[in-house]
Amino acid sequence: MSPQVRLANEIAVQFRHQPPDAAAAAIAAHIRTFWEPRMRAELMRWVEIEPESLDPLAREAARLLRG
Amino acid sequence: MTAPVTVYVPRDSAALSVGADQVAKELERAAARVGRPIRLIRNGSRGMLWLEPLVEVVTERGRVGYGPVESSRVGDLVAAGLFDGADHDLCQGVVDQLPWLREQTRLCFARVGVTDPLSPEDYLAHGGLLGLRRALELPAADVVAEVTESGLRGRGGAGFPAGIKWKTVADTPGPLKFVCCNADEGDSGTFADRMLMEGDPFTLIEGMTIAARAVGAQEGYIYIRSEYPDAVRTMRRAIDVARAEGWLGADILGSGLRFDLFVRVGAGAYICGEETAMLESLEGKRGMVRAKPPIPAITGLFGKPTVVNNVLTLASVPAILADGAAAYRDLGVERSRGTQVFQLAGNIARGGIFETAFGMNLRELIHRYGGGTLSGRPVRAVQVGGPLGAYLPESGLDLPLEYEAFVAAGAMLGHGGIVVFDDTVDMAAMARFAMEFCAEESCGKCTPCRVGAVRGVEVIDRIVAGQDPDGNLALLNDLCELMTEGSLCAMGGLTPMPVRSALLHFPDDFTAR
Amino acid sequence: MSLLKEPDLGTPAKAGPATVTVEVDGLPVTVPEGTSVMRAAALSGIEIPKLCATDSLEAFGSCRLCLVEIDGRRGTPASCTTPVSDGMKVRTQSPKLEKLRQGVMELYISDHPLDCLTCSANGDCELQDMSGVVGLRQVRYGYEGANHLAEKTDTSNPYFNFEASKCIACSRCVRACGEIQGTFALTIEARGFASKVSAGGKAFMDSECVSCGACVQACPTATLQEKSVVQLGMPTRSVVTTCAYCGVGCSFKAELRGTELVRMVPHKDGGANEGHSCVKGRFAFGYATHPDRVLTPMIRERITDEWRPVDWDTAISYTAAKLRDIQSRHGTGAIGGITSSRTTNEEVYVVQKMIRAAFGNNNVDTCARVCHSPTGYGLKQTFGTSAGTQDFRSVAKADVIMVIGANPTDGHPVFASRMKRRIREGAKLIVVDPRRIDLVRSPHIEATHHLQLAPGTNVAVINAMAHVVLTEGLVDRGFVADRCEDFDTWAEFIARPENGPEAVEELTGVPAEELRAAARLYATAGNGAIYYGLGVTEHSQGSTMVMGMANLAMSTGNIGREGVGVNPLRGQNNVQGSCDMGSFPHELTGYRHVSDDVVRGVFEEMWGASLLPEPGLRIPNMFDAAIEGSFRAIYVQGEDIAQSDPNTKHVTAALTAMELVVVQDLFLNETAKFAHVFLPGTSFLEKDGTFTNAERRINRVRPVMPPSTGKHEWEIVAEIAQAMGYPMHYDHPSEIMDEIAALTPTFAGVSFEKLDKIGSVQWPCNENAPEGTPIMHMDGFVRGKGRFVPTPYVPTRERSTRKFPLILTTGRILSQYNVGAQTRRTGNVAWHPEDVLEIHPHDAEVRGIRDGDEVVLASRVGATSLRAVLSDRMPVGVVYTTFHHPVTGANVVTTENSDWATNCPEYKVTAVQVGLRHAAAPADAARDETVLPEMAE
After folding, report:
1. Where is the 4Fe-4S Mo/W bis-MGD-type domain (chain C) (predicted)?
2. Whose CA, among C250, C575, C679, C921, lies 20 to 30 Å from C320?
3. SS3 for C470-522, per residue?
4. C60–B contact, CB cutoff 8 A
């Protein structure tokens, strides 16, 4: 598994106590703050090719990051 | 069937050391043999040590005493009618009427030798708990005041007013305070603490409980030297009994007072009789003297406000509370009020406990009550107050037994131990012994005591050997001054007292021979 | 500079507002109440003779030299133990006192060797000094009497001797061992004249002595003396500098003869240590001049080639050209670097500046990534800045101390001594640790609660504690209302039954009642202080746990005053500093995000370069990118990633994949095996700069000797940047600090000049706090309001399995330091010649392992072999080892798991199996399953 997918999923679990919208926003903010662009690109690539490998919250965060 | 005869055989360790247990056994055997039921009570000692083992038989006339009884003579005594108080060459008559006892004023030792030490009924029957009951009725501050007004001073040696010490502890705020009893009785010629603990332990417990009541302490410790196994056993059993009787614990005599008591055993160091070294030892540390200030009354055991008093001080308290301060203060002279428990020892015909009001003169005590030397030779020197006390020459025995008079004579009353020497004593050897004792028992903390005592022995040896006697005498004098002025505690500070008194009164003993 | 002699006022300072005025020899002096006569006299300029007194120890009153006369008092009281009282009139000199003092000295000297001229303490001996001061002219006792001259010298300790014949039995060593260090290894044996200092009746080396040096420091004579002084003689000059070991940051006087370092002596004015030290800082400095040090730059084309020594110009231009070449082929982002927490703030700063400005990217990270990055994240989220809240001194005001995932007596010994002193005074202790660390029970210390949790369950435990605080009504409502935000959301979360102690009992292994009691104690005992270490951060939920502790502290109002706080115990000397200096890929100096246009603008203007607004790669990301191919070159400043980072196989694969690995270090370390350029670094004895310790204290590091490599590290970095075409030049490191101060609001008031003047400062140091800030968040949090953050417990992926049924956790020991590059090159190996695996007797029994057996330790990623030591410090199912020796390679077995927020590796939880090592089987073959027993589930 890509380290980025794994990490995104790990981040996602940390925010599961929040409502999904807020969680996705928080995850996206975290990734924006701490991830180098090529890591984000890698995550986007996996969202494209294997979306099911991602936690739904992480998927939603990725959508926000793209947006 | 006839009622059993009550027979007393002391179990005080002084009596045991001369065969009291064997005597007791023989008495039971003989009683069985002759078919006389007896009730054998193991009491404390009456303090007439030359009569031990002193067997007492309860008769209509009173308690008739026989002593000293050797076990081999029991059969003979029983045959002669001991159980009926019959006459015999060992019969001393009615014990209470012996002048030696009758002329004492026994407050502290009132019950010692009279009662069964571990019988709570006996204790109550002989006036026990009257002091505590009164203390529980008074406000705590009044209890302190009572002790202050009684004039009671520390019996351990320093003679510090007990009431002032208690007041300091009472006035020092703190959620936890202690009462510690110094029962590390190590002075030569002293045994009163031991005899009290073995002969009337409840008195000490009562005294400590009153102290706790007065200062607001919750826990107490009795620090007993390891050389006193019988006292340790008796105290521990007495504490168990007291707890069972509700005299100790969470709600003492239903008053709500909470106080508990524990025995701790020393490890053979004389210095642990010094109060701060004792506290260190109680804390589980090496018995080393603390610098004062802070004083134990403010920063004592585990750093908490602590009453530290000697056995005799605390054991005097119940009587003070029971009879009132005035009754106690009426005894004694000058600033030495109440009674002191003197202990006659050494080369003396009639050794033992002599409790009397302060003020009797030393000569009277030694000659009239002590009967002079055991050897029959003239008295040459008397050491009062333990191994650190001064040697008094025969000519100086007209001294009233009173704190300040002794200080004025360059001596000290100390714990009331009196050791007598006849004219064969070598006073240079005694001076050397003082230094040697200090060298042996110094805790090793301060330099004057740790190194000075060893050098003191060496210098005295040189003086006696005739090596530069003037120079060495000057050096010894300087050393004594340094130890007196510079030592951390009384151990090093008082060691020069016997040395200097020997030099002063017996200078010829120090010339080379 | 000559030898710095610090004044000794005889007894410790007494705090307190009340003062009294006394007269000493006619001179009035006003001192705080409780001050000793001796100290009052010293403060008025009058030194009373003394031997057993020293101002680091409570008065003892044993030597009896300091006797004085006091009007209205009998006798001659000792001035050290007599407190002043108002109006007291003291005489320190009189014929009588002179005679007494001479008498005391006469006694001392009658039992002391008369070899002053050949004695190692000649010139530095208080006994000698006092003999002179009191005018001793003769010893009438002679020298033939009883004495201790035949006492044997104990030379067992590698660093100091105990020459018993010279002992004056002042007990200073014994008291220092107890009062200052808190080890109680020494005692006085026997009594009277036979009294002698004894290490529990054993040789020092066989005793409980931890070789902290406090006894040596306290000894007034040659009795306890550094071997280096015995061998070399008395030093002649001192340089005050800062220890380069752990994050306590002790100040030392480096004492030298010329440029030869004779000894390191803890500095009384050091804010962090106040005159105390540990075995590493005090004695283990030999590595700095060890022959293994490389002093010349070296390069090689391939890592299979021999190293080729070159001159600095060659090395620098080679490096610059290579880096630029790689960037031209693979892009600007293909290179990056790692700063070191072992180097100075100035050296770190220039490396991150080189990367951001000269490399033109943000691929800079620091070794704090693998230790305290979760602290950075967690404390920033909750409090607003990445730093411990207190100064070390604060612990003296704590009423309950909670130590979580830290082992201060080994890792931070000098701070541990402060903490132990406070606990001995009565503060309560809660230890949260899978291991029964020494603090749980040691002389005069006992934890009220030891929450012996299963590794990896920190968050569950802290949540449960907060749950108790909340549900039992122990929240400090006033503090929360005034000072915090987002409380209700958090409270709703934490009150959920799944966070209750009973709910997590089975998971954590901590009995619910014990946990409840601990929570109540922390919340209600007065000042509650939390101290934590890598046992908190090095987990997959490290950041969550940091926030969990912050939540707990805020909920109980334990922030913003003396005696409370949340405090990371930093591993390395300059972890705090390297983080402060903008070493993280997303942050510029002072923890400001690179995306902040205003902040970036300030830097761009000052640096004359344009900076990227996007975060760069973190260390593990660099490794991943290297293996994947987009990251081609790395500049490693003073960190041995091949040994210290987890999953060694992965790290070495990444290093091997790169075209250029530049290592700047003292030694050819494990990472250097994969390097193409080796740039020799300078030891702390050669550095000129600052370190920032765990309490944010900026301490000066002063050069004791010139760089043996010919170049300062900051010069090397500036020259590489220059060679890459980016102008960077400093004439002196103070200019670097000036630049830091100009760019960083929290450092605005910091300069070498100020540090030299006032010793040290704790940031923030600026116009609001010109002398620094010992305690943070006093009036408000850095972020305004303290923020409660819900902290769900998410278990690690690392689980024990049938194949790997045990959990390995790792740590450090007192005598060794991290990867051991320094301490292994000192006498400290005497205490720890090898890493061992501690295993519970039960776990050993079922595997047929006996104490001392060679065993194989394997995880799903690797295996190594080491010696087993049976120990019941861990619960059944947990094994423990250290990572000080490269031969052990403990990180061969640690995994790629990391903290979700910061990628800090999960060193503390690895599922492993342990089995007897077959005589001939090499470690690599150890994973053969016939060797390792499989446990039935």
Report:
1. 236-292
2. C575
3. HHCCCCCHHHHHHHEECHHHHHHHHCCHHHCHHHHHHHHCCCHHHHHHHHHHH
4. yes
- Within chain C, all domains assigned CATH 3.40.228.10 are found at 374-568
Q: Is C55 helix (H, G, I), strand (E, B) or coil?
A: coil
Is C192 in CB contact (< 8 Å) with chain B? Answer: yes
Q: What gap in Å lies between CA C677 and CA C871, rounded to an integer?
A: 44
In 3D space, the residue among B410, B412, B437, B133 whose CA is nearest the CA of residue B270 turns out to be B437
Q: Where in chain C is the domain with CATH 3.40.50.740?
A: 312-371+574-686+736-749
Question: Are C576 and C582 within 8 A, CB to CB?
Answer: no
Interface A:C, ≥3 CB–CB pairs < 8 Å: yes
Rounded to whole angstroms, the Cα distance separating C637 from C660 reads: 14
Predicted complex ipTM: 0.95
What is the structure's pLDDT at C184? 96
Within 8 A of A37 by CB-CB distance, chain C residues are 614
C806-935: CATH topology? Barwin-like endoglucanases (2.40.40)
Query: How many Å lie between the alpha carbon of C166 and the closest alpha carbon of chain B?
Result: 14
Q: Tell me the sheet residues that pair with C31.
A: C20
Q: What is the pLDDT of residue C1?
A: 54
Question: Under a CB-based contact definition with an 8 Å cutoff, are residues B196 and B109 in contact?
Answer: yes
Question: Which long-range contacts does C590-599 make (Cβ < 8 Å, 24+ apart)?
Answer: C590/C743, C590/C744, C590/C745, C590/C746, C590/C747, C591/C376, C591/C380, C591/C385, C591/C386, C593/A33, C594/C362, C595/A33
Q: What is the rounded average pLDDT for all residues in chain A?
A: 92
**Mean pLDDT in order along chain C per 10 residues (937 residues):** 86 91 96 96 96 96 96 95 96 97 97 95 95 96 96 96 97 97 95 95 96 96 97 95 94 92 95 94 92 95 96 97 97 96 95 97 92 92 92 96 95 96 96 96 95 95 97 96 96 96 96 98 96 93 96 96 94 91 95 96 96 95 94 94 86 96 94 96 95 95 94 96 96 97 96 95 94 93 94 91 92 83 88 91 95 93 92 94 81 86 90 82 44 45
Picking from C36, C73, C141 by the largest number of B CB atoms within 10 A of its own CB, the best residue to mutate is C141
Q: What is d(CA B491, CA B498) in angstroms, rounded to the nearest whole number?
A: 12
Residue in chain A lying closest to C621 (CA) = A39
For B210-219, the pLDDT digits (tens) are 999 999 999 9
Element (DSSP H or E) covering residue C265? strand C260-266
Indicate the pairing of strand B339-346 with strand B417-422.
Answer: parallel
- Contact residues of C toward A, CB < 8 A: 333, 362-363, 493, 540, 544, 585-586, 593, 595, 614-618, 620-621, 624-625, 630, 790, 792, 794, 896, 898, 900-903
Check CB contact of C77 with chain B, cutoff 8 Å.
Answer: no
3-state secondary structure C329-354: HHCHHHEEEEECCCCCHHHHHHHHHH
What is the β-pairing status of strands B91-94 and B62-66? antiparallel
Q: Which of A16, A34, A43, A65 to probe by mutation at the C interface, max C CB count within 10 Å? A: A34
Pairs of residues, one from chain B and one from chain C, whose beta carbons lie less than 8 Å apart: 109
List, in order of start, the domains of chain B with CATH numbers.
Answer: 5-102 (3.40.30.10), 120-330 (3.40.50.11540), 333-422 (3.10.20.600), 427-511 (1.20.1440.230)
Among chain C residues, CA nearest to A29: C901
Class level of CATH domain C374-568 = alpha beta
Q: What domain range includes position A45?
A: 3-66
> A9-12: which pairs have CB atoms within 8 A and are 24 or more residues apart?
A9/A54, A9/A55, A9/A58, A10/C540, A10/C794, A10/C900, A11/A58, A11/C900, A11/C901, A12/A54, A12/A55, A12/A56, A12/A57, A12/A58, A12/A61
